[in-house]
Design a protein that fits this description.
- The protein is built from 1 helix and no strands.
- The protein is an all-alpha fold and 45 residues long.
- It has one domain.
């Protein structure tokens, strides 16, 4: 059980290491678009 948990954590870390750089690069653009939409009132239904 502990071994399975460690394997799952290692797989998660591998995925994060592989796709983390793309996520970090895209995150500011996503946050900026959300903030722009919020300031325009698009999310204030």
């Amino acid at each position: 059980m502990a071994y399975g948990h460690a394997t799952r954590m290692a797989t998660l870390l591998e995925v994060l290491m592989r796709y983390g750089h793309a996520t970090v690069r895209a995150a500011p653009q996503v946050a900026q678009s959300v903030l722009l939409g919020a300031t325009r009132g698009e999310f204030n239904n």
